[in-house]
Amino acid sequence: MSGEAGGGGADAGTGVADGARGRPAVATARTRPRHLRARLGLIVLGSLLVAVAGTVVLVDQLFGRAQRGSLEDLLARDLQRVQALVAAGTLGADFVEQGAGGVRLQFVSNAGAVLLAADAGDPIPLAAAPVRSLSGERAELVGSAAWRLPSGLEIGTIRMALDVTQAEAGRATLRVNLLFAGSLLALVAGALAWGLVSGALRPLADLARQAAAVDPARPRLARYRGPDDEVAELARALNVALEAIAERQQAERDALAEVAHELAAPLTVVAGELRQLATARPDDPRVRAAREAADELLHTSQDLLTLARGELDRAPDLSVVDLAEVARGVIGAYPGVALAADRADARVFAQPDRLRQVVRNLVRNAVQAAGAERVRVAVAGGPEVRLRVEDDGPGMTPEALARVFDRYVSGRAGGAGVGLTVARRIVASFDGRIEARSEPGRGTAFEVTLPGWSSQVEAEPAEA
Amino acid sequence: MPPAHVLVVEDDARLRGLVREALEATGHRVTAVGTGSDALLRALGGGIDLVLLDLNLPDVDGIEVARRLVDGEVPIVMLTARGDVASRVEGLYAGAADYVTKPFELQELLARVHVRLRERGAGEAAIEYAGLRLQSDVRTLSAGDAQVTLPEREAELLRLLLTHPGRVFSREDLEARLYGDDLPDSNTIEVFVYQLRRRIRALGAPDPIRTVRGKGYTVL
């Protein structure tokens, strides 16, 4: 609401309310659907990453265990074979010295001295069960078995070291590959999840937008396109609420129309008879006061009923009307109000009685605020026709000004606050606009701008 | 304006009295009744120039009374109070009626009545406007010595425009008035207006028809 006031680049301290737009702009504050989407996306992505990491660790462990198992089997088998060959006496120092690719073999005495070795490598440690050990850069799986002579005498241990550097490098490569593939998968799945979450949230955001745009005066039901899920439930609940509001409003309108019907005839009679009486007795101040009061009552009821009956929802019946003439006619009922009209063409396309309603409401508003002697009305013709109603009354605060065209908001005690609302809507129905400027202590000015009749008429086709 | 005979149909006696007095003060002859059946009976007798009709009558639905009177081609100004009536009136309004919503200012009502009577007066004789003369019973349009006979619907369209100078008729409004419920092709009215303008220029007269952007046609 306050978004419309003071937005017109007005001088400091001077407020402007623009009544051209039919309805206060709904604040387009984002209801932050982005946060929910991001949160859900992060949760999905996080779970995917944890799952991938878990899988990588698990596969790596299982693979490592299987690899170690087969290497240990290999070592044990080889050791047994060597042990058997040595015990049978078929194996000698020459075999040991040949050395086999990736396998080191050492014969160590009970005293701990290396008696036979295929190379000058580190002594192989004693290990009852297979054990990983490092020899320089090489990672080895180490095992040992009893060294028995063919006689059966145990003279030391046969020690064997299996090079596992390659195997370990293979496992590391596998681990890296797994991590890479898993991360890629997680990213793809994450993007997919993001898309799905966004898709699922779109109807929600759409509903929020529609709810924010609901016109309290004429609530329209929200449209929902999406699966029958929790969001659909929300949409249904929203529509139930909107329907209840609409029903309530219709009931109020009906009641008002009923009251109006009851009041219409007596009001017309009172105002009409008093007018006749005032014509017959022009010098009686009491008759004049009564006539003025009756007219005011009549006009206020007309404003209220115009809104209540939804008459302004119908297109106006347009005619060419001279705004200066209308202003002159209205001001006739308010002695003291000054009128200035230039000589330019002030004709517009409008519905005469409604245009009169606009001018009357603006003038009445100013007279009630400041007194007739301090109200000036000016009409300027041209391609755009302007009507300006100015007073040097108490003026309005920027807050009051911002709401000056709102329904049932009155600037003063006792006013119904519909006159300006009606004026604004009528002016809008003629493709015009209405603006208010005011400052406390410095009066108020309303300006109506309507397109001149000539600017609305298409150029005549060229003579044939 | 020549005095006219106005039939006032209004069930509220005070309002009836007020309207009768005001109309008589402007020189018209007034017959005032309080029920729909009286109104129909009185209208059948003929000699009525205009009917002021309250739609909320105790016996017959005002809309029904209006419908029968419209068939008899008596202009009607309807008085309405309830909101929903306005929309129901719209269909009829396309025919021959105008309406004023209650409560109203006496002056406003008198102004409407005068406009309606003026239109009716203009409708009977030949219509003259800015050098053009339309003899609507034989459908001849003339300017100076030149003369042309118009097709029926074009004559009716021109008569409407010339008898309501300054008033804007939307395309839909014109379609409804010329064709009733049996609506024609969407560009029929445009074609009529184009033809009328061509004929008027051929007569050597200035073309008074104006196209109001997005709103319809008027004569100025």
Protein model, in words:
The complex is a heterodimer of chains A (464) and B (220). Chain A has helices at 33-88, 93-98, 165-212, 230-280, 285-308, 323-331, 352-370, 398-402, 419-429, 453-456, and strands at residues 15-18, 103-109, 114-117, 131-135, 138-148, 154-163, 319-322, 338-341, 347-350, 375-380, 384-391, 433-438, 444-451. Chain A is an alpha+beta fold. Chain A is rod-shaped, with a radius of gyration of 48 Å. The relative contact order of chain A is 0.10. Residues 1-13 and 20-31 of chain A have low confidence and may be disordered. Chain B folds into two domains: 5-123, Rossmann fold, CATH 3.40.50; 126-219, Arc Repressor Mutant, subunit A, CATH 1.10.10.10. Chain B is 45% helix and 22% strand. Chain B has helices at 13-25, 36-44, 62-71, 83-93, 106-124, 152-163, 171-179, 188-202; strands at 5-9, 29-33, 50-54, 76-80, 97-101, 127-129, 132-135, 140-143, 146-149, 209-212, 216-219. In chain B, the strands form three sheets. Chain B has a five-stranded parallel beta sheet, sandwiched between helices. Chain B has a four-stranded antiparallel beta sheet with strand order 6-7-8-9. Classes of the chains: A alpha+beta (464), B alpha/beta (220). The A-B interface holds A 253, 257-258, 260-261, 263-269, 271-273, 275-276, 295, 298, 301-302, 305, 308-311, 314-315, 317-321, 349, 353, 453, 456-458, 460-461, 463-464 and B 12, 14-15, 18, 21-22, 56, 81-84, 86-87, 90, 101-108, 164, 166-168, 170, 197-198, 201, 207, 210-213, 215-216, 218, 220.
**General shape of chain B:** elongated
Strand order of the largest sheet of chain B: 2-1-3-4-5
Gyration radius of chain B, to the nearest Å? 19 Å
Tell me which protein chains meet in the greatest interface and how many residues each side has: A-B, 43 and 39 residues
Q: Percentage of helical residues of chain A?
A: 40-55%
Quantity of strands of chain B, as a count: 11
Mean pLDDT of chain A: 82
Highest-level CATH class of the largest domain in chain B: Alpha Beta
Strand content of chain A: 15-25%
Distance between the termini of chain A: 54 Å
Tell me the fraction of residues in β-strands of chain B, as a range: 15-25%
CATH superfamily of the largest domain in chain B: Response regulator
